[in-house]
Amino acid sequence: MIIKALTTSWILFFLTISTAFADNSKTSLNRCESNNEKTEIFVTTNERGFLVSTQYSSRTLNIKSRSSLAGDFVVGLTSLESKTAIDIAGPVWEDLTKEGECFAAKIKIQLSYEPIQVYIGNEFAEGSCSYNSILEHEMQHVVLHQNSLQLIGNTIKDLMERRFLGKPIYANNNSARQMLEAEIDEIWRPLIKAEFAKVQMLQKELDSEENINKVTWSCLGEIQSKFGYRYK
């Protein structure tokens, strides 16, 4: 597996907080259940492939990189932008006599990657041994990103279903939707961000000194001899 599940202690802490959101505002209203309405979770993922470019030199890629040092030559770089879209819909029933309402929320989450950008220094001719060696390494980053997206989606869907258990959200009149939006902003968006951050940590592991040395000393040390000292 590429994405590790949340630790048991964090899950228990998280579910305790989430349960409090529901219990603190629950009313005796049962209109949602009588209409067989429930809270539903929909999580979709969309990754749009990758593009390979040789428009920049290794010195310029150093400027684009967030982890390199001044003076480094960044021979290959993989970059992407992740997006999270969350939509809330669903019927709300009010009971004026009890001053409460139930909200059968339909929560739709879309996690997506824009096309992953793979850059290879323009010092390396396309199809050459060094070019292929650098591309092979960068494709490990691409595959890690692609595989991680569905796993993040599965993790979020599983935790949300455990939190809501298909039950409607109960609240005082005119407050159920706002309560859910607050929970999403305070708990779910940070959680999704944390899951994406885990992937970045794994990406850094791919760029270990050992792995970089394998690339730069491939092809009879062509990359090493071209730059002589600092490289990424």
Q: What does this entry look like structurally?
A:
The chain is an alpha/beta fold. 48% of the residues lie in helices and 21% in strands. It is built from 7 helices and 9 strands. The strands form 3 sheets. It has a 3-stranded mixed sheet with strand order 1-7-4, with helices on one face. It has a 3-stranded mixed sheet with strand order 2-8-3, with helices on one face. Strands 5-6-9 form a 3-stranded antiparallel sheet, with helices on one face. A hairpin with a 4-residue loop joins strand 5 and strand 6 (100-103). The radius of gyration is 24 Å and the shape is rod-shaped. The model is unreliable at 1-13 and 17-28 (pLDDT under 50).
- Helices and strands: which structural class? alpha/beta
Instruction: Output mean pLDDT.
Output: 80
Largest sheet: 3 strands, mixed
Query: Which percent bin holds the helix content?
Result: 40-55%
Q: Approximately how much beta-strand content do the residues carry? A: 15-25%
- What is the distance, rounded to the nearest whole angstrom, between the alpha carbons of the first and last residues? 27 Å
Listing every helix as H and every strand as E from the N terminus to the C terminus, the arrangement reads HHEEHEEEEEEHEHHH
Low-confidence spans: pLDDT under 50, at least 5 residues? 1-13, 17-28
Lateral strand order in the biggest sheet: 1-7-4
From the alpha carbons, calculate the radius of gyration and give it in angstroms.
24 Å
Signal peptide: 1-22
Keywords: Signal
